[in-house]
Every structure is written in C-alpha cells, then in structure tokens.
Design a protein that fits this description.
This protein has about 190 residues and is mainly alpha-helical. The protein is built from eight helices and no strands. Helix 3 runs antiparallel to helix 4, helix 3 packs across helix 6 and helix 7 packs antiparallel against helix 8.
Length: about 190
C-alpha cells in the first residue's frame, strides 16, 4: 500500500499524475536555477575583483543550508500541507534566484544563495512523489526524479552559457522564471477548498 502517513499523502487538490508532475517541475526549477548561474559565477566574481575561492565558499554555504532546510520543511509540510509548503518554497526561490542578480558583493550573494539553499524543494518533492500510488510505480518515478534533476542542470547550464558572462542579472531573472510558474501552479491548489 502507498505510504499514507507521508506529508504528500495529505494532498487532495490535484490528481496523482498532476502531483507527480508539479513535484518534478519544482525539482527541475531548482536545478535549473543552480545550473544557470554555475557557469557565470566565476566571471561575476572576477569582474568584482573577488578571489575565485568565493565559488567554493558560496557553493559550500548554499549546500549546508540545503541540509538544514530539507528536514525542517518536511516537518512543516505535516502541519501546513504539502502544497502550501511547496508554494512557500517556490515563492522564496523565485525571490532568492531573482535577487541573486541584485547582489553587488560576494558576501551578499553568499547570503542570498544560503537562503536559496535553505528553501530547496528536493526533499519535499521526493517524499511527495514517493507517497503517491502503488509501490510498483516508485522505481519509474524515482528515475523521473533523477532525469528532471539532470535536465534542469543541463538546461540551466545551456542557458547560462548562452547568455554569457556579462548577463548576470538577466541570467538570475531567467533562473527565477520556472519557480514563478511552479508557484502559480501551486497557488491554484492552495486556493482550492
């Protein structure tokens, strides 16, 4: 039987297929946001006369925040509901991804990226998918999770590379676009009775 005590099982606003879809798109959005700035970050730092060590500092700090945020938002989803919690994460990611383009110092960018890491949706998205349907569907769905992660990184890196090093603000704005779409999709679910 499906894992009915998981946070995702409380979702009743979407069909099972739509719940899997929005979870996958939220994961894609997060990795797209990471992928788009990754090729541009060293140039952004160099243009501001910062050491390239900041690439490691920012990346390390962001992923420490991911580790802290994942279990907290998983627990929050038990109280608030999975759609409302995921909506919060996507709104926060939209603001933080776009806000990365407004940073003028490495320390400010690091702080914004820590916020983005803290609001990572992966744990909640994976638990949402795992709680749906029959167990025999889980291997295929976990394969889709991995595929959406990699497609997000690849698409982000392609877009970031195509925009080029002088287009940091534009890249950050584009990185926020998929999270805005996810937030809108989730807002519909949260608004439903």
């Amino acid at each position: 039987p499906p894992m009915r005590d998981a946070p995702a099982a409380m979702s009743g606003c979407f069909s099972e297929r739509a719940q899997v879809g929005i979870s996958l798109v939220c994961m894609f959005s997060d990795y797209f946001g990471i992928g788009i700035i990754a090729p541009l970050l060293p140039f952004w730092l160099r243009d501001r006369d910062y050491s390239l060590r900041w690439v490691g500092i920012i990346t390390f700090a962001q992923y420490v925040a991911v580790i802290v945020g994942l279990p907290l938002f998983g627990a929050a989803s038990k109280r608030l509901g999975v759609e409302a919690t995921m909506l919060f994460l996507m709104v926060a990611d939209s603001a933080l991804f776009g806000g990365s383009g407004l940073c003028e110092s490495a320390a400010a960018l690091c702080a914004v990226r820590v916020g983005a890491g803290f609001c990572a949706p992966q744990g909640l998205a994976i638990s949402w998918i795992a709680s749906l349907g029959e167990p025999e569907r889980l291997p295929k769905r976990m394969g889709l999770v991995a595929a959406f992660i990699h497609v997000g990184v690849l698409a982000g890196a392609l877009v970031g590379g195509a925009l080029g090093w002088g287009r940091w603000r534009e890249a950050c704005a584009v990185s926020a676009a998929p999270t805005v779409l996810c937030a809108a999709w989730l807002a519909v679910a949260v608004a439903r009775p």
